[in-house]
Predict the 3D structure of the following.
Amino acid sequence: MDHGRRETLKRVGGAVVAAGVAPLVTACAGPVRSDTAPDATVVGVDPVLVDVLNHAGLAPSGHNTQPWVVRVPEPNRLLISTVRDRWLPHVDPENRELLLSLGCFLENFTIAAQHHGLEVDHRVVAATPTDTEILDVMLRRVDPRPYALEKLVSRRTVRNHHLARALTRADIQALTAPFGEHAVFFPAASEGARWLAEQTVEANRVQAYRDPAQEELSRWIRWSDEDALKHRNGLTPESMEITGLAGWYVRHFMDASSTMKSSFRDRSVDAVRKQVSAYGGWLVITSPDGSIPTLIETGRQVERMWLGIRERMIAIHPMTQILEEAPFRDQVAQQLGLSGRVQFLLRTSYLESYPDPVSMRMPVSRFASGANG
Ligand SMILES: Cc1cc2nc3c(=O)[nH]c(=O)nc-3n(C[C@H](O)[C@H](O)[C@H](O)COP(=O)(O)O)c2cc1C
């Protein structure tokens, strides 16, 4: 943060403290997901399917671009696609992360559909990662398979306040077992974890100073409340966990050009350094290959695991920059002694208290349409 900004922040903080108005600090909070009611209707789409899609859209995605687009040409058929203006060509040129995110979306979709008595059969129709049509999905009626859909609602990324407490053997087993040989947990004290922590800081530094990547990020940060409520995607101060007075300040004084200043870039790297200074370990997910069906399946498995961690008071923070930047991305598998391709680097820790979800979501009507849409 540059000197002028720090001074302003101090003055703002001073004014609030001088007024002795603690509730003002609470009023400093920006818009969060629960402030925006989900749209309950999509013309030409069964309300049950709209509910299923609403739950699917709660899936995680890189920069929260929510890259999914859904068309429902017939009551029991959906086409799941993506649109170019929600791609991240400068950090995800092969759409690897986009396909993992679509896998998370498909997993949420399948869980919610089964809950409502709909079985899901999907077929990957994309031949290359840059095809826009990805999945052809058929639905058929079956007995409902009840699921606590609240787990989809309350899942979130948690970036701060990770505890440096070792994970129990039972928790590590619960996290890794579903992946078979494709998940390895590196406790914070291990050599692999130390390499990941150090190189994550370095990869963030490289990325923060790579202008096209930083410009791309700036297009997905919704600094103002107005922008957050208008777009309902991207990253907000609340979702980046810039809260309290600092949150109030950035929501009023930051814009896309601030993101390009070296003060902001340096502060982002400092925040990452702080994040990797205390945590439980790294959950590293690999896959046998990088094919489209494999990436979608890997995304599904990660989402399934992510839905089960809140009840264990475990936080997950994907830190992807090592996989996005050279030379780190070419070194990571060998450094960690892993075969296969590394798809997710998840900083994983216990929390003292679990925060509510805050990242915004677009209404279903903005990403789905019926036969005539
Ligand atoms: C493939 C993928 C990569 C991600 N990479 C990062 C990352 O490098 N750093 C980060 O802070 N969050 C990362 N995230 C988390 C997203 O930013 C997050 O899912 C999104 O903002 C929505 O927030 P939510 O998970 O709380 O719903 C990633 C998520 C996915 C699915």
Notes: The domain at 169-221+256-350 is CATH 3.40.109.10 (NADH Oxidase). The two ends are 46 Å apart (CA to CA). Strands lie at 68-74, 77-82, 118-124, 133-141, 183-187, 281-287, 314-318, 341-350, 368-369. Residues 1-23 have pLDDT under 50 and may be disordered.
